[in-house]
Specification:
alpha/beta, seven-stranded parallel β-sheet, binds nicotinamide-adenine-dinucleotide
Length: about 270
């Protein structure tokens, strides 16, 4: 039973693609996958190692899919094998969802200047940024008829956010990578975009010191005075990956109830009254 409800239809009928980054039933990748499936997409899921398989398999089966492939984005052999299996199964794909990031707990607290080690920086950039470039290359090689690729980012790429630290640096690089990939792949008919989602309750958020505060501030300062919804994020993914997102590429679309445009929240002398 899904925690969310997604509109059904045919927008993705006949389209096949890869969703990377489902860890559990709160993962953003899982919300996006359900929305794409509800619109007729056929999906191959990659997951990070055997430990996650037990948690992810029932989810995948609950939407009538069965293609699950282990893929560690830091391991070239694992990535070769994963994309090899996808090519063998389908020959070509139409879309790819990259919903993967990681930084160590020690990096996601306190001072960015004090707490970012060389190894921590390298790991965050490798898993959260290089993996996207690598996936875009691998996916584009099996998109002979064009396609669409998305990744997930956050406001911490553009503005400073407490504890987000090296992940903000990585997201800035991810957004730049989105634009360069869009440039490189445009002539192949492949669109590349990023969704900048507001803070959402997932495993990744739990790894950030004060993650709950990012959610409550995101809600309280937002224009809509609400949490970012999985339905909104997944709907945006559907829009960017389906034919209705035609002509849109190299874009970072904010889905955060308007939080990103607020410079100063409501003021007590009635500035917005
Ligand atoms: P999540 O923890 O459910 O997903 C993160 C995924 O990254 C997991 O599936 C994990 O297995 C995968 N991953 C980490 N290292 C990997 C590796 N070496 N190889 C393969 N996979 C690996 O959390 P989420 O919040 O759904 O995160 C998904 C994306 O959304 C991330 O890019 C995150 O930065 C982004 N995002 C999250 C929020 C939020 O508030 N939760 C907001 C904006 C953007």
């Amino acid at each position: 039973m899904s925690k969310w409800s997604f509109p059904t239809g045919d927008l993705m009928k006949g389209k096949r693609g890869v969703v990377m980054g489902v860890a559990n039933d709160s993962s953003i990748a899982w919300g996006i996958a359900q929305q794409l499936a509800a619109q007729g997409a056929e999906i191959a899921f990659t997951y990070q190692g055997e430990n996650l398989e037990r948690r992810v398999r029932p989810l995948v089966e609950s939407i009538g899919m069965d293609t699950m492939i282990s893929a560690d984005v830091t391991d070239d052999a694992s990535m070769d094998a994963a994309f090899g299996q996808i090519k063998e199964k389908w020959g070509k794909i139409d879309f790819l969802v990259h919903s993967i990031a990681f930084a160590g707990k020690e990096e996601l607290m306190g001072s960015m200047v004090a707490n970012t080690s060389r190894e921590g920086f390298r790991r965050a950039m490798d898993i959260s940024v290089y993996s996207f470039i690598d996936c875009a290359r691998r996916a584009s090689e099996i998109m002979p008829d064009g396609g669409a690729i998305i990744c997930m980012t956050y406001l911490g790429a553009e503005r400073t956010v407490p504890s987000y630290n090296v992940m903000g640096v990585a997201k800035a690089a991810l957004e730049a990578s989105t634009r360069y990939a869009a440039r490189d792949l445009g002539t192949k008919g492949i669109r590349v975009n990023a969704i900048s989602a507001g803070a959402m309750r997932t495993l990744s958020l739990a790894g950030i010191r004060g993650g709950k505060g990012l959610m409550s501030t995101g809600r309280d300062w937002s224009l809509l005075k609400e949490d970012t919804s999985m339905e909104g994020v997944a709907g945006c993914a559907l829009y960017l990956l389906s034919p209705i997102g035609r002509s849109i590429t190299g874009e970072v679309v904010h889905v955060d109830a308007g939080f990103h445009i607020v410079g100063v929240p409501e003021i007590s002398d009635g500035g917005t009254a």
